[in-house]
Amino acid sequence: MSSQSNSHAGIQTSDKPLGRDDLARLVARDIKPGSFVNLGIGQPTLVSNYLEPEQNITLHTENGMLGMGPEATGDQIDGDLINAGKIPVTELPGASYFHHADSFAIMRGGHLDICVLGAFQVSATGDLANWHTGAPDAIPAVGGAMDLATGAKDVFVMMTLLTRDGVSKLVEACSYPLTGIGCVTRVYTDKAVFLTGPDGVEVRETFGCTLEELQAMIPVPLRAASAVGN
Amino acid sequence: MLNFVDSVGEAVAGIKDGSTVMIGGFGNAGQPFELIDALMDCGATDLTVVNNNAGQGDQGLALLIKEGRVKKMICSFPRQSDSWHFDARFRAGEIELELVPQGNLAERIRAAGAGIGGFFTPTGYGTMLAEGKETRILDGRGQVFETPIHADVALIKALKADGKGNLVYRKTARNFGPIMAAAAKHTVVQVSEIVPTGGLDPEIIVTPGIYVNSIVKVA
User: Which of A2, B10, B16, B133 is deepest in the core (most CB within 10 A)?
Assistant: First the structure.
C-alpha cells in the first residue's frame, strides 16, 4: 500500500477498498515511534492489534491509565482494570494510574500525540461530529469525545467514507451536532486517506478508485497531497 | 473530623433529601456499591447525583434511579447498552440531565475541591454543550467558561485507609475518587482494609486524610 509517486495516477495504492483490519493496520503503521496514543471506542480499538512492540507506543485510557495492554482474558480479568469502553484490559510494564482530572489534563494539556476516533461526519476544514445524531428521541452521551478532539496534537478519524445510503460522510459542513471545530487532521476511510485542515482536503492515497472517481462521491473539492507520506 | 464507623448505614445516615451526592466510579470500577445500597435503604430522595455514568444493569446507581430517588443526573455518558433504568426515567421526563464532557466534569469537580471559581477551556467550544455559556478567545482559541461542581456528600471506594484517613486505590478504580473526596463537604469512603496509622508509606498516598470524614470497612 505504500505510495511512491506524487502523480495522480500513482495516488491509488490498492486495487480494492480497504477492510476494517487493513485500515487499522495502515493507521498503526502511520503512528510515529514513541507516541502517546488514545484509541477511541469501536473501530479505532482495532488499531492496537497492529502496533508493533518496536514502535514503543504507549496507550492512554481516559479512565486513568497509561501503558494499557491488550484485552484481558481468563484469569487476567480484573474488575478494577478496565478501559474507556469498560472492557477488562491488562497493564504493561511501566504502566501508571492517575485520577480522572489528571487523565483529562493529559488530553486537555496537549500531551497526547494522537487520538483515533470514529465519526458520523467530518467537514472539509476538519470539524468533527461523532457524539450525537441530534435525533429528537436520542439520549445524548458525550463521554470524553470533546476533550480528545480538542486536546490531542493530532486527531485521526477512522470511518467508512459513505453511509449505508451511499452519502459521503466527508462533507462541506457537518449537519450533525459538532464535537469539535477544525480539530481533525486526517481521515482514514475504506476508499481513501484524507488530510484535512484550514485549506481544505488533500487526498494522500486512494483504494479501489481513482482520484476522479473519488471526487464524484464527495461534495467537497479534493486535491492530491503535494507530498506523500505522513 | 474523621470517624471510623461500623456500618454502611451509619456512614450515610446524614444524607438529607435534596442533597447533591457525588458517587465515585467509572462503570462498575470504583463504584461504591455497598454505600449506594445503604443510601437506598436510608430513604433520602430528590437527590442530585454526580457520576460519570447513569447506572448500569440492575445494581448500584441504576437502582437508585429506578426507584425514583434521583431528580437530576450530572454526568458525561448516561446512555449505555445496559442503562435501561435511566433511559426509562429520562424518556418519561422524570429525571433531569446535565450532560457534561468528561474532562469538564472531572475539572469542574477538581475546581470545587481546589477553591477555583471557574475556568476557561477549549473543550466544547462551538458545540451545543456550550450554548448559553460565556466564551472568550484566549491564546487564539475559542474557550468556554465552566464553573465548579460542589457536593454535600461524596461516596467513594478506596482500597485501603490508615488511621489518619489517608487513602490508596486500586488500578483504574481510582478514577473520580480523589477529586470527589476534595469537592464534597462530607466524604464517605468504603475500603477493603484499614491499616494502623503509619501503615501506609507517605510517598504513595493518593488522597490525604484531610479530605475524608467517614470510613467504613466493607468485606
Answer: B10
The cell for A126 is 476538519
pLDDT digits (tens, 9 = 90+) for B11-31: 999 999 999 999 999 989 999
Going by their DSSP bridges, the two strands A114-117 and A121-123 should be labelled as: unpaired
Integer Cα distance of B121 and B135 in angstroms? 9
Cell of B29: 470500577
Rounded distance between C-alpha atoms, residue B201 and residue B178, angstroms? 17
Q: ipTM of this model?
A: 0.96
Report the pLDDT averaged over residues B115-133: 98
pLDDT above 90 covers a percentage of chain B that reads: 97
Tell me, yes or no, if A62 is annotated catalytic. yes
Contacts of B177 in chain A (CB under 8 A): 99
CB spacing of B90 vs A140 below 8 angstroms: no
**Residues sharing a CB contact under 8 Å with residue A128, sequence separation 6 or more, in sequence order:** A117, A119, A121, A122, A149, A155, A157, A174, A178, A179, A180, A183, A184
Q: Which residues in chain B touch residue A82, judged by CB atoms under 8 angstroms apart?
A: 26-27, 29, 172
